[in-house]
Amino acid sequence: MKDKLYKMMSWPQIEAIVYGEEGNPQTILGRHNISAYTLYQTFIPTAESVVLHIEGQKKTYNMEMADEAGFFAIAIVGKEPRDYTYEVVYKDGSIKMIHDPYIFDVSLDKDQRKNWNKGTSFDSYRFMGAHEAVIDGISGVVFRVWAPNAIRVSVIGDFNDWDGHAHPMMFDEETGIYSLFIPELKAGNRYMYEVCVKGGECSVKMDPYARSFDEGAEVGMITASDNYEWNDKTYLKNRKDIDISDAVINIFELDNSLWETGNEDITDANVNELCDYVNDIGYTHVLLNVRTDRFYCINTTLYENYSLKKIIDSFHSKGIGVLLRINLCFFDQSENGLKTFDGTYLYGHLDDRKRYNAMFGYNFNYGREQVRDFLMSNVIYWFDEFHIDGIHVDEISTVLFLNYGKNDNETAYNMYGGIENLEAIDFFKCMNTNIHKLYKGVLTTTKETGMFPNVTTSVANNGLGFDLIWDNGFGDDYMDFLRKGDTDIHKLTDSMAYAYSENYILTISKEDVISANDFDYERVSEGAGYFDYVAYEDNMKMAVKRATLSFFCAHPGKKLIYIGQDEKNLSSRLNDLYKTLPAFHALDRYKEGFEWVRSIDNGTGVIAFMRKSEVFRECILVVCNFSLEDYKDYKLGMPYEGKYKAIFNSEEKSYGGNFKLPAKMIDTVDEEYDGKECTLTIPIPAMSVSYYAYSPYSEDEFLKIAARKAAKIKKELEKEAERRAKELEKEALRKAREYNSLTKSS
Asked: I need a labelling partner for 173 at 20 to 30 A (CA). Which of 364, 521, 540, 582 fits?
């Protein structure tokens, strides 16, 4: 090696590069002006030799191998500003022209740095992770990862033999972000990060911002922009006008198993078939369970041959909204995930009492700006890139309460001595505020089991700001009722004591199905349903199912049902009634939309209630018989006199039962009963739910009724007068006889 070249080189830094200990490789690798020379240095562990090509020069320069590990260098007289490439002869004999990764500026701009450090980027998915890019006319991939406490981070992949020494990333102290642009890389390459921490320990990590991963290999994949041409412009425009508060919300929960068709790919045919089914049955939304705990990733083994965007676009073409189940509460304990990502609990709390999630793994540290940005950007990513219509956040109780599932000695209380996780509360408020500001007409739903108050109250009124919350109490009570048969009917009525404390969704979700099967996941995966283990004989289980679906439709609250738990003909009819009868949805959030007719079981197993809209004549009477007894003439005390027309019964022949609806309208009878002024007598088959449309009497009918009442009263009065006259006559005769008797005796 020439003496001048030797003196120009920083051998301690070269050693750090060779041994993988250099966190700022850009200070030595690449092109640097030193005195009157331009020094070129590169480290390619698999290279046999390297030739420098400078743009515009015919002359080439054989670089010297400064270290047998693969470190090459050359110094050229003059300050050479032009682009250059390396002609690399690899040890396997292959030859390739490459650009030097360490001359490309990949630093964030001023605003990006500021927003990143404040945790307010909200679109960091656009610059974090791996992205195809063109810099200075050169195509390649930009990698960025947040690891402020790491000593060194390298990009490893199938393009560099997974060697952590080959592509160490450049560190920015202001943001804590490691970055690198690797020219010539393209979508499809698999990659990970090798993260080295204090003490010299190195581990392989998934990219937190990776957009796809190979599940079989547990590695990330570089994805290209698909430039998908959406066809839902009109749909998205109309979505802005949706008022969630009084809208019909009827969600069909789907599952990954729907796409797992053996060796068959997802096709236009089976996607269109599904969309047609959902549309024909009358669901307004679908909930897709396609998320993984990889956050930004989609499982490529499931979707690599068919675009998830195309699936969503297909639903939008039918006017069907798409919700996505999303994890914003915890990360798992896998070593290649977020756990001790840079040698510290970067995404979690240093205090293990706050970090530990009693159910799933580790809680996120919502107080750390970059973690909030990571999560919020994840939400924005799905709305922006996939045009989703809402998100469902599971199990937020585990993070809203600092003591959830913990003993006192395991709980770190908040600054006021309370058990509320103030940072998590603030995050969800911020999330819902921004979602509803940016995307009008979308839904945010959640499942909360810890009795946290005001989950669906607006942020302006100190609530969390979710649109809807799953009604876990009602679902648990209902399944308990079905397991015990026709006893404890109060479990079906207790829900109305709290029905308007939140904006609820009634669910028969996948989780409900699993719970109903005693958490036997294998049994559920083999097709076991929600009604398989209820306390009824097999010949009654279908009637139980029909009655359940009909009861759910009529009960206050939005609806969600898991695939396989509905019945095509019945569900289609119920969903149509739910949409077209204002009484079933218009006042869902208000107590004025509901009135009990009979809420106390008198031993018959029958409960009844009225559903109302803002128009009185649109009332619907709902009668539920959860017993195994048929009642031919069942008497109900009614709050409103009028005519009632049977419009639906879950045991009609068309749905698999044997009941025929009464053809004629049924009038109330002027008779006091159950504290009501009139009665209605109707037939009720066993294990059934009936709907009756209410028609108040017209003015002429009320006058005729009044005339009949007057005639009846007149007749009763005449009878009373006649009776009284006879009594007076008898009294007069008695007195006459008494006086006559006294006269004779005197």
From this structure: 364
> 558 in helix, strand or coil?
strand
Looking from the CA of 380 toward its CB, the CA atoms found within 13 Å total: 20
Q: What is the pLDDT of residue 318?
A: 95
Q: Alpha-carbon distance 457 to 468, whole Å?
A: 9
What whole-number distance in Å separates Cα of residue 644 and Cα of residue 665?
5
Q: Could you give the CA distance from residue 326 to residue 374 in angstroms, rounded to a whole number?
A: 13
Neighbouring residues of 746: CB distance < 8 A, sequence distance ≥ 6 = none
pLDDT of residue 487: 67
Distance CA 521, CA 515 (A): 9
Residues of the chain with confidence (pLDDT) below 70: 1-2, 215-217, 257-265, 290-294, 298-306, 485-487, 744-746
Interacting residues of 293 by C-beta distance below 8 A, sequence separation 6+? 327, 331, 332, 337
| pLDDT at residue 263 in the model | 45
Residues 6+ apart with CB under 8 A from 1: 64, 66
Nearest Cα to Cα of residue 464 among 420, 414, 403:
420
Residue 697 DSSP class = P
**Cβ atoms within 10 Å of 704's Cβ, excluding its own:** 12
**pTM metric for this prediction:** 0.89
Question: How far apart (Å, rounded) are the C-alpha atoms in residues 679 and 637?
Answer: 4
- Taking 3-state DSSP, the helix, strand and coil percentages for the chain, each rounded to the nearest 5, stand at 35, 25, 40
Distance of CA 452 to the CA centre of its chain: 18
Host H or E run for residue 171: strand 170-172
Please choose, from the candidates 218, 147, 221, the residue with its C-alpha nearest in 3D space to the C-alpha of residue 186. Answer: 221
CA pair distance 582, 585, nearest whole angstrom: 6
End-to-end, the C-alpha distance of the chain in Å comes to: 166
- Residue 685's nearest CA partner among 663, 703, 659, 661 is 659
Residue-wise pLDDT tens digits, 697-729: 877 877 777 777 788 888 888 888 888 888 888
User: What pLDDT, on the 0 to 100 scale, is given for residue 484?
Assistant: 76
